[in-house]
Amino acid sequence: MACSISHMKETHFIWGVFAAVLKGNWKDLVKPDISSSFTPTVMNNILVRLSEEGGSLSWAFYKWAECIPHYKHSLHSNWAMIHILTSQRHFITAQNLLESIAFKDFLSSPSVLNSLISTRNDPNLNSHILSWLVIVYAQSKMIQDATQVFEQMRVNTLKPHLHACSALLNALVKARLTDTTWKTYKKMLLIGVVPNIHIFNVLIHACCNLGDVERANKLLNEMESKRIHPDLFTYNTLISLFCKKGMHYEALAVQERMTREGIEPDIVTYNCLIHGFCKQGRMKEALRFLRDIKRAEPNQVTYTTLIDGFCRVNNLEEALKLREEMERKGLQLGIVTYNSILRKLCEEGNTKDANHLLNEMSDKKVEPNNITCNTLINAYCKKRDMVSACRFRIKMLEGGLTLDQFTYKALIHGFCHVQDMDKAKQLLFDMLDAGLSPNYSVYSWLVDGYCNQKNEGSVLKLPDELTERGFSVGISVYRALIRRLCKREKIERAQDLFNRMQGMGISGDTIVYTSLAFAYFKARKMSAASDMLDNMAKRKLLITPKIYDSFSASYAADGDVLRILWDQVVERGLVMKKVLNLML
């Protein structure tokens, strides 16, 4: 009875507000005894009733209600208003309102979405609004939210609009979520989505990212079966894919097909072809494409690609001619163009002209980046001019750049070459302090440097020094040091380091045991080598294809010893089946 009375009062209040709004007596509604009765349910009912009167009265009242003291629109009130605006075809206003609540009301939550969908039994409007929501989340890189909205649409048998489908798939492709992309596409097909050219273009772009020619061709066939004609974007993506895979004949066939179908290649088409041929060092063909460009203008990318290509095939003269042509056409050299020329000058040991180029960059306000500085640092390190190398290191820091893996590697290599091992070691510590992980090459240079000074004892101390400085010393450090000592035939030192490693509770891996076994075989210490392989067998460690290839390449000069090693490894069953095929 009480509930019935309460409901009657609420209904009476709604009709009273409705009448006041229609008569224009809005001021009466802000009286405390009236405004305090506004609830989300009341607001929803009033908005719906006002929308039935036509016009924009409901939207005006919705905006006016935001000023009522102590009242705040609920999620359901907002949703009701979005529905009303959409039904009245005020799409931009509806989209703006949806976007304003999308990021703060956990709108993508399945329970929230189901609750909202159930309040408005209009599949077309729900599809419209939720499609917008998918687009909002996808374009904001909120991929999980976009996917959740799509899933709720699917569960509620609501078909998303094609724009929403392409936006979601595009976001997934950009995030490199390949498996999710294809699964989502299949789900779209199952709920009746008929893909258009934009969806196919997104999927072909995904194939390009993966280098998946087979799947791209299947999609092309699917397009043809649906009578969907490829457009310029489709063809450019296919050309890029074929060039990436070195399939130049196929790339040229696509270009010819474009022309037959009346689609003019644009500068992107030519740039893809030029890049593909430059990548293969086929500079004559690449340059021909530049000369054949029609109805398009070569841009900075075009010339930079060609300049870089000629530098890589050791034709600096042609690269500099193209640079002049580029400037004559009013195109500015960017940092990538400068870096390509700079790299070639440094490869030739021409640091004088490299510095002139750096001064030119400064005059033209082109800021050097890490690649610029690393190229020069590496060039000076190779010339053993560590003073100049360190000067550029300081310039990097003063320019707000951060030393990266390449900077540290170049400097460590340089100091090891000039046998200044204290500075090389300090750089190793600095590199670790910066959160970077030295690879095998870095540790091998340090081993070589100390061995050249006949100071192998410092190699053995290195793990302890790292530990004292608070660095975690695991198998990767020991593996690199042992492997290099074995390579230099310092087998006793390698064994000492192996014993220390085991004493620290760190077990050797396949590379450690195989390196030691090889070194013992080479030193004709057959018993010690056999012990290493037997211990390897006890620990069930196997030679993988990658390890087999690495050892075969590293020790190719010692073919006889390598054959003994592989025979013993096979005899003990320490190889994966794939390796046996490689050995045949």
In short:
The protein is an all-alpha fold and 584 residues long. The protein has helices at residues 2-23, 32-35, 40-51, 57-65, 75-87, 91-102, 110-119, 123-139, 143-155, 162-174, 178-190, 197-210, 213-225, 232-244, 248-260, 267-279, 283-292, 300-312, 316-328, 335-347, 351-363, 370-382, 386-398, 405-417, 421-433, 440-452, 457-468, 475-487, 491-503, 510-522, 526-538, 545-554, 559-571, 577-583. The protein is 73% helix and 0% strand.
**What portion of the residues fall into strands of 2 or more residues?**
under 5%
Biggest beta-sheet profile: none
Helix content: over 70%
Unreliable runs:
1-5
Overall residue-averaged pLDDT value: 90
Shape: elongated
Cα separation of the termini: 91 Å
The tally of beta strands, per DSSP, is 0
Structural class: mainly alpha
What is the count of DSSP helices, taking H or I runs of 4+ residues?
34
InterPro entries: PPR_domain-containing (IPR052308), PPR_rpt (IPR002885), TPR-like_helical_dom_sf (IPR011990)
Keywords: Repeat
PPR repeats: 126-160, 196-230, 231-265, 266-296, 299-333, 334-368, 369-403, 404-438, 474-508
Protein name: Pentatricopeptide repeat-containing protein
Walk me through the structure:
The protein is mainly alpha-helical and 584 residues long. Helix content is 73%, strand content 0%. It contains 34 helices and no strands. The longest helix has 22 residues. The radius of gyration is 35 Å and the shape is elongated. The N terminus is likely disordered.
